[in-house]
């Protein structure tokens, strides 16, 4: 048996004794290695299967998932795998997540702006949905011209609860996003809406809508991206993961944004919650609403 295997791994036909003497190895080492070959093949097949699963999850995230979220996605699928093993395989097979780039904002301060106090003070958390929202705007490039996107994000779940797109960034754009957030019916009385000091957010239209909805307005300082970091960070995620940087038409850009927000981000994208681990924004909202639901 050993002779047959030795021939398979030694096509030159040299004797095992000669080869071992040349390599200064005892023959027992060679035969031990040969005996372990079936187990090595089984392990290799298992690793190949795992790499294939990792590639599917990575491709499903549009190349966004790195080691932590790939590992979490495997666990959610019932795959109990050591995180260091996932890290090693992704490194060996050059599977890497997306690195975000810092974006340029649209913030322009109005000449006679009315500013609100900072009610958030860089505490981008909330114990339950509907208590604190953050908002911001960004521009997207299309062959037809620029398109602008305004969002409202719930700090308890990081779910995008309101958004609007247009070919302008006048005050009516963030007002439309705010109305969508309120229309979903989950905002508490006195809910905080935190933004930067852009002219759209200091406008009479936006402040009037805040008042109509029974909300409280909050603003960060001028020129400090950290005062609205949660909103800006979301746009970094969008531009890194949406899969396009220039669109043929504004309609195509809107369709991609809709799919990314409502299908991929809110319902599918894993995010690490300090208490629940890796879950989606929608799952976070469901769990938090269940935790705070009154007992029957």
From TrEMBL:
InterPro entries named in the record: HTH-like_dom, Integrase_cat-core, RNaseH-like_sf, RNaseH_sf, Transpos_IS3, Transposase_IS3/IS150/IS904
Ranges where the Integrase catalytic domain occurs: 125-289
SUPFAM superfamilies: Ribonuclease H-like
Superkingdom to which the source organism belongs: Bacteria
Coiled coil: none
PROSITE patterns to which the protein is assigned, alphabetical: INTEGRASE
Described purpose of this protein according to its UniProt entry: Involved in the transposition of the insertion sequence.
Protein known as: IS3 family transposase
């Amino acid at each position: 048996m050993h002779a047959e295997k030795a021939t398979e791994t030694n096509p030159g036909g040299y004797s095992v004794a000669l080869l071992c003497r040349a390599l200064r190895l005892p023959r027992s080492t060679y035969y031990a290695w040969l005996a372990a070959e079936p187990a090595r093949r089984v392990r290799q097949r298992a690793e190949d299967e795992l790499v294939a699963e990792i590639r599917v999850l990575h491709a499903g995230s549009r190349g966004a998932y790195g080691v932590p979220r790939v590992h979490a996605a495997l666990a959610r699928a019932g795959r109990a795998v050591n995180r260091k093993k996932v890290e090693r395989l992704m490194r060996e097979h050059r599977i890497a997540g997306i690195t975000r780039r810092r974006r340029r904002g649209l913030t322009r301060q109005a000449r006679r702006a009315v500013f609100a106090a900072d009610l958030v003070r860089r505490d981008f958390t909330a114990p339950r949905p509907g208590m604190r929202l953050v908002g911001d705007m960004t521009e997207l490039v299309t062959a037809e011209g620029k398109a602008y996107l305004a969002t409202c994000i719930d700090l308890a779940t990081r779910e995008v609860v309101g958004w609007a797109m247009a070919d302008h960034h006048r005050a009516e754009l963030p007002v439309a996003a705010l109305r969508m957030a309120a229309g979903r019916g989950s905002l508490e009385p006195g809910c905080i809406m935190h933004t930067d000091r852009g002219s759209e957010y200091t406008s009479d239209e936006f402040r009037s809508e805040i008042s109509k909805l029974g909300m409280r307005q909050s603003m960060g300082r001028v020129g400090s991206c950290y005062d609205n970091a949660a909103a800006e960070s979301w746009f970094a995620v969008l531009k890194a993961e949406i899969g396009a940087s220039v669109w043929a038409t504004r309609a195509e850009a809107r369709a991609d944004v809709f799919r990314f927000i409502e299908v991929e981000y809110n319902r599918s994208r894993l995010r690490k919650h300090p208490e629940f681990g890796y879950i989606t924004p929608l799952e976070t909202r469901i769990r938090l609403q269940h935790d705070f639901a009154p007992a029957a």
